[in-house]
Amino acid sequence: xxxxxxxxxxxxxxxxxxxxxxxxxxxxxxxxxxxxxxxxxxxxxxxxxxxxxxxxxxxxxxxx
Length: 64
Fold this sequence. Notes:
Elements: E1 4-11, E2 17-24, H1 29-47, E3 54-58
Antiparallel strand pairs: 1-2, 1-3
């Protein structure tokens, strides 16, 4: 099993973490972004949120 990078998806209205995702470090930046955007869209749909209300951050380097 390879090294992974961990992300949190956050609802910007509440500040709550609504999901986690781990991605292989073997993926290039474009592939990582594609997977993050896909997960963001799925979360927006399942939580009935506007896409702009969800953002992700590197779990090891939070924005807050």
